[in-house]
Amino acid sequence: MASPIYPMELIDRCVGSKVWVITRLNKEYTGTLLGFDDFINLVLEDVVEFEHSQQGVVKTKLHSTLINGNNICMIVPGSDGP
Prior knowledge:
Blueprint: H1 7-13, E1 18-23, E2 27-36, E3 42-53, E4 56-67, E5 72-77
Antiparallel strand pairs: 1-2, 1-5, 2-3, 3-4
């Protein structure tokens, strides 16, 4: 029987790896996960922000960013995003 993997444990395993973060605010982020806290606030580095608008997708490169856990819909481990 396999042992269960809990959400916080899965996120902890992703520290130092690429992740794709989808938010409720029409934005998506890809980058390396540096850390997180109990509220799933994420710190990413080497970030590309994808903002969806009526004109299309706008890409912005950022050195690092903090994403509020309340705005996160999904975290995809090991992905470079859209």
